Amino acid sequence: MDRHLPFTSLANFRDLGGYRTTDRHRTRPGLLYRADSLGKVRTGTPDWDLYLSLGIRTVIDLRHPWEIADHGRVPAHDSFTYHHLSIEHRPYNQAALGPDVPVGPYLAQRYMEVAEDGTEEIAQTLTLIADAVTSSAPLAFHCASGKDRTGLIAALVLTLVDVPHPTISEDYALTELATPALLADWRARNNGHTPTWPAFGRAPAEVMDLFLTALMNRYGSVDDYVTKSLGLDARALRETLRAGLLEPAA
Prior knowledge:
Layout (H helix, E strand, L loop, with lengths): L13 E2 L9 E3 L4 E4 L10 H8 L4 E4 L3 H7 L9 E4 L18 H15 L1 H16 L4 E4 L6 H12 L4 H9 L5 H11 L15 H15 L2 H7 L5 H12 E3 L2
Parallel strand pairs: 3-6, 4-5, 4-6
Antiparallel strand pairs: 1-3, 2-7
């Protein structure tokens, strides 16, 4: 199933609604969106009109400051607030990796680093998401490709509302449908060159499987990670997210 919205400038903008939980609920459509860089959207275009039509009230930009300086941010508009929360503290260059680097273990390890380094920003991100769903005010969070940092946040939120891990990995792997466009965009920004890493832009489900397993092994549960590392009340956060984001499944 392709969940991508029909943007021209965005390759990986998706609605996180419609996912079933373990207790016969589902995530509400039209409330929480994950995306690649909204800095690619331009005012006065059909993409801008489509973006505004979604009624998004909060945007969380997970990128590094230098990424925003180099590639821009979503245009300012009175209809939404913009938050910059860079959750990745150890930058790495996927495009420059060698062909022998295995995609699953490598990216899962990077995601664990982000989970451990970016605790302050991750906590703020989850709090903003909880506030948004409580108010039924649509929110979008994004990084550059909508895959790695965005995928980590999506996995935490979906786990906290009891979406099963196989479904979370399937959601992560939907980026595979956007891989050709993400690769073409990178080539266009790099004089037509091709990344040395054949897995650039790839998002096999194995990556998320390995990351969630590593997180469980280290902390015992996502709730324990939220409590011990993020300093949040995991029970209260879970209840808030479930109350605002879930609806009975048909």
